[in-house]
Amino acid sequence: MFNSGLLKGTTIRMADGTKKNVEDIEVGDIVETYNLLDNAHLRFNEVIAGEVYSITSRIENKLVTTTFDNGNSLTTTLEYPYKMQHTSGSMCADSETFGICEHAGWESYRPDITAEYYWDPNPWPSNDPRFNIPESSKYNSNLPPLTVGDEIWADAGKHPPTHISNETIDPWWNEWEEPEFRITEFNEITGPFEVYILEVLDKGGTVWANDVLVAAGQSYKYNSAGRGPGYLPSENINNVKIREDLVNTKHIVETDLRDRQLELYSQVDVWPGDKGDIIEYYEKHGTLE
């Protein structure tokens, strides 16, 4: 079951569009969630109603407040996964960067703890062969650390009526506007604090928490193996150097990836999608022909 916590007082968007403080949610309440069939274009997934099957609370001594450039903020446990998505206004739509997209997927403030809680962190590989990641690094391209400037999903209050692959998208796509908000600041705070955990939903794996899209329910399953029954805090929770190393690695490997992509894209007028990733193609064939 899911086991990351939201600070008491956080608002959760319900399926009927109203908002409810997380501490007031009860088993049987219905929240708004996504089915997560297409992680790269989450907004085009079906919006569904998820029934709360289990919600618990506990005391945490260390949380992080993440602030965004719309003046909003969200306070969570350090390992809480955010759903990061590239939008119509991101690098994907910037002609100068040739369609290179920002990361679309899960991120957290302390991905090392996220891995510890939700899957075996040893080893901690990146499965994206395009990244030049040192063997000693704990950086994983599937779960990078949240950093200042990263774009979050903020609630637009409306949803496209169909999936992006459906031809019926054309009539409304040109009028669709996605709000763009980015992280401006992190602030670790010391408690004790009361946090609430949306452990199990009958379906769906996200919730809108303070109008920010984050994990819940079936998105992650807590791994207590080797740590005994129930929840145990990470032994590394006070090790700030781990986050510093992850953030530094993120900047290095993503800058390197972007530079190599730009260099290759500059050599072609159009890159056919059926050839796959341009870096992988070049490394395999030694040419873009």
Fold and architecture overview:
- By secondary structure, the chain is an alpha+beta fold.
- It has a domain at 6-117 and 144-229: Hedgehog/Intein (Hint) domain (Endonuclease - Pi-scei, Chain A, domain 1, Beta Complex).
- The protein has helices at residues 111-118, 170-173, 240-265, 278-285, and strands at residues 6-7, 11-13, 19-21, 30-34, 47-68, 73-77, 82-84, 105-107, 151-152, 181-201, 206-209, 212-215.
- The strands form four sheets. Strands 1, 4, 5, 6, 9 and 10 form a six-stranded antiparallel β-sheet that branches. Strands 2-3 form a two-stranded antiparallel sheet. Strands 7-8 form a two-stranded antiparallel ribbon.
- The chain is globular, with a radius of gyration of 20 Å.
- The relative contact order is 0.23.
- The model is unreliable at 87-91 and 93-99 (pLDDT under 50).
Produce a short descriptive summary.
The chain has 289 residues and is an alpha+beta fold. It has a domain at 6-117 and 144-229: Beta Complex (Endonuclease - Pi-scei, Chain A, domain 1), CATH 2.170.16.10. The chain has helices spanning 111-118, 170-173, 240-265, 278-285, and strands at 6-7, 11-13, 19-21, 30-34, 47-68, 73-77, 82-84, 105-107, 151-152, 181-201, 206-209, 212-215.
